Amino acid sequence: xxxxxxxxxxxxxxxxxxxxxxxxxxxxxxxxxxxxxxxxxxxxxxxxxxxxxxxxxxxxxxxxxxxxxxxxxxxxxxxxxxxxxxxxxxxxxxxxxxxxxxxxxxxxxxxxxxxxxxxxxxxxxxxxxxxxxxxxxxxxxxxxxxxxxxxxxxxxxxxxxxxxxxxxxxxxxxxxxxxxxxxxxxxxxxxxxxxxxxxxxxxxxxxxxxxxxxxxxxxxxxxxxxxxxxxxxxxxxxxxxxxxxxxxxxxxxxxxxxxxxxxxxxxxxxxxxxxxxxxxxxxxxxxxxxxxxxxxxxxxxxxxxxxxxxxxxxxxxxxxxxxxxxxxxxxxxxxxxxxxxxxxxxxxxxxxxxxxxxxxxxxxxxxxxxxxxxxxxxxxxxxxxxxxxxxxxxxxxxxxxxxxxxxxxxxxxxxxxxxxxxxxxxxxxxxxxxxxxxxxxxxxx
Length: 445
Description:
By secondary structure, the chain is α+β, with helices and mostly antiparallel strands. It has helices at residues 32-36, 45-56, 100-116, 118-129, 200-218, 221-224, 230-233, 238-249, 310-315; strands spanning 269-271, 277-286, 292-306, 337-338, 356-368, 382-391. Residues 1-26, 41-96, 152-183, 242-264, 306-340, 412-445 are annotated as: Disordered.
């Protein structure tokens, strides 16, 4: 299709606008230099949109944006960050914080449970990571030994026989992983039933009373260090307390306080730390007269360091006396003492850092009588039967204390009673308690 072109002006015609008839934009080039040199520039679409909006709703400065003219940013307390905002000044929601609420709930529950069972938490920690008294070297796990649920069938396995020291008092002992509190031992409260005239709650309270007595008589640091066992005495029956106080005041072969309480004379043996280890079991049954019998069988282990008079005592003559009585006498008697000095002293360990251990096993039966048939006091303990034996304590000494032997003083030579019985393992709880009165030795301590 032909295109009509603009005809050129005729030579005879003069332009009416006063020009020579030439197009003024014919030589104009719209390049980049021309665009940059323009005096008026076209606004972007977003600029025109915001300008139209701000005519009706002026913008508000949220205070979160800063410019180079604002000066240095002021320091904020506790490193708080300004809350982020969008271009219109609206605060943006924080992200990634949804996981914090469940974590805080779990931590709060854990802290509450730990606070309700501080003793259990301490026992759990000490049996897995040591008790803070140097039981294991740093980073070495301790094999945890659970409480007994019945009579063991064999002795604990042998461990590396290392010389115990003040920093590592449990080295070479099977008790290193044993519990440190009597509270972890059964029977569980939910398994206790009615026995005789006592309901389940009453029997559970009787078991708890027995546990508290065992702790006060054998685990209280003040009692073990030689203090007067006031807490344990307060739980005994009037007759039992009178007998125990008489034994404390005037120890003798027939009434030795160590038959009741674990005690050491600080002049020749000082406990290392205030945490000791134990293993055993508790059982409950009827007495046949509508009462309750609570049976306990526990082995307590005590780490000790020499006292200021330990060397003097090692060379002092010892009185020899008759053997301890046999059978199961009244509380405070019975059992057998066993001196021990079998650990080979290490050549590179100073004598004042070596320690020893004394192992005490107690087998007791507590009776709770029917109050309708017997004149008894409530919440007091009455012994039905008791017996004990000790590993690493001098024989035929009845002064109310345990006297362990330390290897670093064995070479000094003393006149103590020579052991005559066969060696035995004080950690072997599969055997019955010895009550023959023979002064023997032990295979380990």
